[in-house]
Amino acid sequence: MIPYRDEKIIQAIYFFADQHKKMVRKYLYQTFLYKYLAFFDFRSLEETGEPALGLHYLALEHGPVPDEIYNSDQYKSTDLYKFQKDNYGTIINPLPESKPNYDCFSKYEINLLGNLIEIFASEYVSTNMACEASHEAITAWRRTWKKNPNSMIKYIDDFPGELLKKSPEKLSDIEQHFLIFSTINHLS
Question: Other CB atoms closer than 10 Å to residue 86's CB: what's the count?
Fold first, then answer.
């Protein structure tokens, strides 16, 4: 289990909504949030062998979508933000009196959150561009979409080849770490 997982998910949603709004001067839409979260999880997976949040993603047409948020209300209303409908879709509204607490994140994760905002929080980066970027960057989405669209993405599919068939001496340190982490956490 990822320590402080629920708190990390809530804080990550707030961070992306708040920082995106500050940079772009517009609210963050739900679809764009899903891309931020997927990039956060899959970039962390590729660089450390562990997803930052461990969300379960569906391989939908516009890229990875976190099932726990898409199909549940669990993370849609907190004391930090609210998901709200507008004329164009669902926005994430960071509440003005919010008091975020990023202590649940490692220094690496804080840097990654900031890097993703630097890359994507621009008036010139549209939701469609973020979706296309997720198609290009997230191997597990491409593999799942090709085999079985709209199904659950497996983190193991983000690694090249067939990870479980590699001999131990051919595994990278990150691949070894992922295999241990995924076994302990029953993650695929």
Answer: 10
